[in-house]
UniProtKB/TrEMBL annotation:
Superkingdom per UniProt: Eukaryota
Protein name: Uncharacterized protein
Gene3D superfamilies, per database record: 1.10.405.20, 3.30.70.1990, FAD/NAD(P)-binding domain
Source taxonomy: Eukaryota, Fungi, Dikarya, Ascomycota, Pezizomycotina
Species of provenance: Triangularia verruculosa
Skewed-composition ranges (Basic and acidic residues): 300-310
Annotated SUPFAM superfamilies: FAD/NAD(P)-binding domain
InterPro entries per the UniProt record, alphabetical: FAD/NAD-bd_sf (IPR036188)
Region (Disordered): 291-310
């Protein structure tokens, strides 16, 4: 996701909801479609292709950024000519969803991925800058996968996998949700004797999801969205991982070509009217100001300009159905004519925020991964959990360039914008310099040559709210007022699983079209 500030100054839009005047638009600025899709990431792009090709429906995709791709982030190093994926990097097969890659008009080439190796791993406490001593021993490499296999088998044996993947269609009503799934993941692991999985699971989930700062306190049901049973198979070798040749952006560039003028880029919804008979959307490409203040860097996606951008005029979309493929936060949904009950529903979740980036500095150790672990991991390696916000690691990307990928997580969405995340990254490097772990920077600034805001993570509702039917209510909104929801806000957060979620959803969406 190039930015999560999908709307700007959205508060004013709700005021005018329902007052759209068709006569105010020129005929060439009115777009009639079967389905309007908001968001051109993995879910929105896939849905657009399938609706056009498999269902014969007309679509329009409204994408805030100038390209499709969502959480895909691909950086071209102009010096070396090498391509680096620093967002979504890999794909794993899930049911028949891999077939999408081989569609005639897409047809990207996948290659098996294997760990490249070569990077020396150094364990460093980024909070203090100190490198963990030789007394630290990483957990038994076999113990984690064994525990994850037991977790997988437990999910299957209890039928919990069918309740939670690819979406929550099969989750029982709130009062009937299995209590084990509402336990904090730490308690769940202890109850079932699989604590060894947590240290392996933790970095895979980006250090946790949702709004809780302590990984072990995150609800198991929330963790499953970021670590579903299908993904767990990768860790004990049942399925492999694959990469797109030429970088992941290749896939979305081909989708962009396929969809052509059915995508409206660099635009956002500012007004809407939704009813059971259809929807109307006013989209705006006129000047607006991004919510972030720091300029984007060369090689990135130019997401944080903080400048007024000249765009084209407003357009009116009239469609039979609306598919929202954006995180269903209260802020993102503000322009969509929410009812009081919808406002109440979407105001409950608390979201964290994550970012990915590529940093460049001549003093960072090429050929090394600096992995963030608290000093306490020396005595308790099974609990290497960090206090947010944090950088998970600095990982060398190439032997011929001082480029390092990093992922960052924070528990408070509004308090962890890119500007704050960059401070956290710079502070981590400075702490390592002060502790003697890294050499003096000699006045050279850390450069972020690419940056991507991956936005809200998890659905951050409490066990009590889930018992009271929050997820049941979320899925009950599907189809109401001609509106459908897809994406990682309400389904497993992996591309191939999101595509399979779409397969279920689209069959329902097209009924009556």
């Amino acid at each position: 996701m190039r930015t999560t500030a999908f709307i700007a100054a959205s508060a004013i839009s709700a005021v005018s909801a329902g007052r759209i005047q068709r006569a105010a638009f020129r005929s060439e600025d009115i777009i009639y479609k079967d389905v309007a899709i908001i968001g051109g990431g993995a879910s929105g792009s896939h849905a657009a292709v399938r609706l056009r090709q498999d269902y014969g429906k007309s679509v329009v995709v409204v994408e805030r950024e100038p390209i499709l791709g969502g959480h895909v982030d691909t950086y071209l190093d102009k010096t070396t000519g090498k391509i680096h994926d620093y967002g979504i990097a890999l794909y794993f097969p899930y049911q028949d969803s891999f077939d999408f890659f081989s569609r005639p008009d897409i047809n990207v080439t996948l290659s098996p991925w294997f760990p490249a190796g070569g990077n020396e791993i150094r364990y460093v406490d980024f909070a203090s800058g100190q490198e963990l001593t030789s007394a630290f021993h990483s957990p038994d490499e076999a113990a984690g996968p064994i525990a994850i296999k037991r977790f997988h088998d437990l999910m299957i044996a209890n039928g919990w996998d069918n309740m939670t993947q690819p979406g929550y269609w099969g989750l029982p009503a709130g009062k009937d949700i299995p209590e084990d799934l509402l336990l904090p993941i730490g308690e769940f692991a202890k109850k079932h004797g699989i604590e060894a999985m947590l240290a392996t699971m933790y970095p895979s989930t980006g250090g946790g999801v949702g709004s809780r700062g302590d990984f072990e306190d995150i609800l198991t049901l929330s963790i499953i969205k970021a670590f579903p049973t299908a993904w767990s198979k990768v860790f004990f070798g049942e399925v492999g991982m694959f990469k797109v040749d030429g970088g992941n952006q290749v896939l979305y560039d081909k989708i962009s070509t396929l969809l052509g003028n059915d995508v409206i880029y660099s635009s956002m919804v500012v007004e809407s009217k939704r009813s059971n008979s259809g929807i109307e959307l006013v989209i705006d490409s006129s000047p607006f100001v991004d919510l972030e203040e720091e300029p984007g860097s060369e090689g990135g996606k130019g997401k944080e300009t903080g400048t007024t951008k000249e765009r084209s005029t407003k357009k009116l979309i009239i469609a039979k159905k609306l598919l929202l493929a954006i995180p269903p936060t209260r802020e993102n949904l503000a322009p969509f004519d929410l009812s009081p009950s919808e406002i109440n529903h979407f105001s409950k979740p608390k979201y964290g925020r994550s970012h990915t980036a590529i940093a460049k500095h001549s003093k960072l150790p090429v050929g090394t991964q600096l992995r963030n672990l608290p000093l306490s991991a020396t005595s308790n390696p099974l609990s290497p959990f960090l206090q947010t916000p944090f950088v998970l690691s600095f990982t060398s990307l190439a032997s011929d360039a001082p480029l390092f990928s990093l992922g960052l997580s924070g528990t408070n969405y509004t308090a962890f914008p890119p500007s704050e995340a960059k401070k956290v990254a710079r502070q981590a490097i400075q702490k390592m310099v002060e502790a003697g772990t890294l050499p003096d920077l000699e006045g050279e600034e850390v450069e972020f040559v690419a940056w991507s805001d991956h936005g809200p993570g998890g659905f951050g509702v409490s066990a009590q709210e889930l018992r009271e039917g929050w997820m049941e209510d979320m899925y009950a909104l599907q189809g109401k007022r001609s509106t459908w929801f897809t994406g990682n806000g309400i389904a497993a957060d992996f591309t191939t699983m999101l595509w399979k979620f779409n397969d279920v959803l689209l069959d329902r969406l097209v009924e009556g079209l």
